[in-house]
Amino acid sequence: MTTSDVAFLRKLAEIKRTGQFKISMEQLRRLDHIKQGQFTATITEEEEAMPPRFQTDIQDAEVFVAEGEPAMFECRVEPKHDLNLSVRWYRNEEELVSGGRMRITHEYGHVALHIFYTYPEDEGKYVCRATNELGEDQTEASLVCRPLPHLQFQLPALDDPDEEVQLGLVKEASSRHGVRAKLKGDEIFRDGLKQPPRFLLKMESYPKILAGQGVNLETFVVPVGDPDMKLEWFLNKEPLLFKSSFTPIYDYGFVGLGINKVYPDDFGEFCVRVSNKFGTAEMAGWVGEMPQGEDQNKEEEPDLPAWCNKVEKGRLAVECPPEITKHLMDMEVGETETAKLEVHFIGNPKPEVIWTKNGEELVNSRHVQVRDREGKSTLLLINVLPEMQGEYRLVVVSPLGSDLTFCRLSVAPLPKEELMRLNRLQKNGLDELVKYEEDKILEKKRKKQEKEDKMKDIKEKNKKFA
């Protein structure tokens, strides 16, 4: 039996006497070997007795606490095989224990403190202290919890002084985001005029959104181009802190907040506040279940399964804003082929349907056919030409809100030989059509002449008998 085995047995006796049952993985393995009678006959890895000494120090750390990011301190300590070595962690002189959000490890001289999810109270000075019978050593570092920035912006002014150009930019932005707002011309900031902020689009609420899903909060604010206009986001009356899952948008009056993944602490009332020298305006929408009584003025929704309100061919029992249930997908078609774009939607009252290509509204024509049925709209592109490729967008609009979907249509051009062959077939077909029409006219004239000759013969015979 080695001296290290003797020291280990002495350690076990101390544990039994004091009732402290903290034991490392190395000590558990040693105990298992001793129970099986596996004693080493010679001293193979015997270390000289020495006081603790840290080979590396823990380093200062900095995290964004609102993100819940992890933090870790690690270092190396000697002697690594000393069974009497005790390693303890402290934060602001208060000892830490392993469990919950924190895990403390000490194996083969490697010491680490893992904080899986940081909170503001985790900030402070951290000390790792190693002690044995011959002395002690320690290393320390600080954890700084930096607060995340508040989502607030100073909205930009318009660069071009031309009023028509400015209004055109606002109209393009509203079309780009599917906003059906009637612009009268007073939405542009004019120096010297009293223009308090106002919203042109109501922000939708999403009471049935689930954790892990994505959502987009959208509205439209004017005047556009006011250099003194400030925009702020709030969640449950508190300033909304920036997170990696948030994507704020401002595009010539269009205001949006994209949340690519909703977390449980994101549920509540989102509010956007805009202010300038002449006043303040707010617009709010809910993400997640609304509190009881929040919507008490509206008609109570019948007790139906959740899917009942989204059956594509069913009738909705209650009023609800338009929502697209089958979206457009990018597609590629060959030249002269037919493309079919189909969208399913719900909404009560029945929403208006608008198809656009590259921002221009589509109407029925030789190559374009729009067909609307209850809850479904289809766009047929007949005999597709290369110039018909681009972005196609469908917007559904009602007094309760709007929704949109879009896709990119690519047209693969025909080879030159195939195009020439089709042109020949088209020319031959046109010649045959002209000849067919000419023959039909000649046949009609011939029948008419025959009928006239027959009537003439009948009249002459009648005269003879008279």
Description:
With 466 residues, the protein is of the alpha+beta class. The chain is built from four helices and 27 strands. It has helices at residues 3-18, 25-35, 163-176, 416-465, and strands spanning 53-54, 61-64, 71-78, 86-91, 94-95, 102-107, 110-115, 124-132, 135-146, 152-154, 198-201, 215-222, 230-235, 238-239, 246-251, 254-259, 268-276, 279-287, 320-326, 331-334, 339-348, 352-357, 360-361, 368-373, 376-381, 390-398, 401-412. A five-stranded mixed β-sheet has the order 2-9-8-4-5, with no helix packed on it. Strands 10, 13, 14, 17 and 18 form a five-stranded antiparallel β-sheet that branches. The chain has a five-stranded mixed β-sheet with strand order 20-27-26-22-23, with no helix packed on it. A hairpin with a 2-residue loop joins strand 22 and strand 23. The radius of gyration is 39 Å and the shape is elongated. The termini are far apart.
Explain the layout of strands and helices.
Elements: H1 3-18, H2 25-35, E1 53-54, E2 61-64, E3 71-78, E4 86-91, E5 94-95, E6 102-107, E7 110-115, E8 124-132, E9 135-146, E10 152-154, H3 163-176, E11 198-201, E12 215-222, E13 230-235, E14 238-239, E15 246-251, E16 254-259, E17 268-276, E18 279-287, E19 320-326, E20 331-334, E21 339-348, E22 352-357, E23 360-361, E24 368-373, E25 376-381, E26 390-398, E27 401-412, H4 416-465
Parallel strand pairs: 2-9, 20-27
Antiparallel strand pairs: 1-3, 3-7, 4-5, 4-8, 6-7, 8-9, 10-13, 11-12, 12-16, 13-14, 13-17, 15-16, 17-18, 19-21, 21-25, 22-23, 22-26, 24-25, 26-27
